Amino acid sequence: MEDSQEKRFQELFKRYETQGVYLFTHFLDLAGLSVLQRCLPRLPRVPYTLFGGAEGCERKMLRLGSEEECGYEQPFPIACLRIAPASARFAEKLTHRDFLGALMNLGFERELLGDIVVREEAAYLFCEERIAPYIAQSLTQVRRTTVRCEPLEKLPEGNLFRLERQVVQLSSVRADALVAHVYKLSRSDAQALFNQGRVFVDGRECRDTGYTPKPGEILSVRGFGRMKYVGVDSLSKKGKSNTAVELFV
């Protein structure tokens, strides 16, 4: 699977070298982004950008090309849709899984859909621009709740992704200790997640349990969530590090 994905990246980068026009992938998940990071040293050196529709998105498109090289700017073909109950009074409490399930039932491949951010009564979906009109017209129900789906010209005010600060005490600032304390796991269970390839640092798979995070890096743990590493706030009286992170909630 990784070999075939790397081959697709190689073909895409070589095509850009030949054509010199902007090229885009579908949305890449963490595994795809990790493959890209690993094979970048072997790919032609061309300008590229990763973006998911908003700051903080986990699933991202890859764009090859730049205004300097192509002579013009071409935005990412990403649309944002707001999905909300038609009547708040009769609405169920809907989760990310509910919204994703309803979208998949429309027959779309997951790679056409970016992040789904659930905020109180509504969800915000990032998707490929070309399928946005069909989703807006066709998505009328999530579970038993009737919904309205409308495209947004701009994102809602404030931060779409919310961060919740948390401080944990660590004997040593290691990635496995951080994952264990934040998600309340045993050290061995946390280390198993690394061995299973379920931990990513800034989109790159991390199997090094002793890795020391750098301030600003985002640790994603499949099945648990994401956190931004802030750094060591202070030392406790016993010499432990009071380590701050910001959880994506």
Any chance you could write out the topology, listing elements then pairs?
Elements: H1 2-19, E1 23-28, H2 30-39, E2 48-51, E3 60-64, H3 67-70, E4 78-85, H4 96-104, E5 113-119, E6 122-128, H5 132-138, E7 141-142, E8 145-151, E9 163-170, H6 175-182, H7 187-195, E10 199-201, E11 204-205, E12 218-221, E13 225-235, E14 241-248
Antiparallel strand pairs: 1-3, 2-3, 4-6, 4-8, 5-6, 7-8, 9-14, 10-11, 10-12, 12-13, 13-14
Helix pairs in contact: 1-2, 6-7
What does the model show?
- By secondary structure, the protein is α+β, with helices and mostly antiparallel strands.
- The chain has three domains: 2-70, Ribosomal Protein S8, Chain: A, domain 1 (2-Layer Sandwich); 78-151, Alpha-Beta Plaits (2-Layer Sandwich); 163-248, RNA-binding S4 domain (Structural Genomics Hypothetical 15.5 Kd Protein In mrcA-pckA Intergenic Region, Chain A), CATH 3.10.290.10.
- It has seven helices and 14 strands.
- The chain has helices at residues 2-19, 30-39, 67-70, 96-104, 132-138, 175-182, 187-195, and strands at residues 23-28, 48-51, 60-64, 78-85, 113-119, 122-128, 141-142, 145-151, 163-170, 199-201, 204-205, 218-221, 225-235, 241-248.
- A six-stranded antiparallel β-sheet has the order 9-14-13-12-10-11. The chain has a five-stranded antiparallel β-sheet with strand order 5-6-4-8-7. Strands 1-3-2 form a three-stranded antiparallel β-sheet.
- Helix 1 (2-19) packs across helix 2 and helix 6 packs across helix 7.
- The radius of gyration is 20 Å and the shape is globular.
Query: How many domains?
Result: 3
Using the CA coordinates, give the radius of gyration: 20 Å
Could you state the order of secondary-structure elements as H and E? HEHEEHEHEEHEEEHHEEEEE
By CATH reckoning, the class of the largest domain would read Alpha Beta
| Name of the CATH superfamily of the largest domain | RNA-binding S4 domain
* Major sheet details: 6 strands, antiparallel
The residue fraction in helices comes out at: 25-40%
Q: Uncertain spans, ≥5 residues at pLDDT below 50?
A: none
Global mean pLDDT = 94
Spatial strand arrangement across the major sheet: 9-14-13-12-10-11
Per the principal axes of the C-alpha atoms, what is the gross shape? globular
Briefly note the structural class of the backbone. alpha+beta
| N-end to C-end Cα span | 31 Å
CATH topology name of the largest domain? Structural Genomics Hypothetical 15.5 Kd Protein In mrcA-pckA Intergenic Region, Chain A
CATH architecture of the largest domain: Roll
Count the strands?
Answer: 14
Strand residues, percent: 25-35%
Q: What count of helical segments does DSSP give?
A: 7
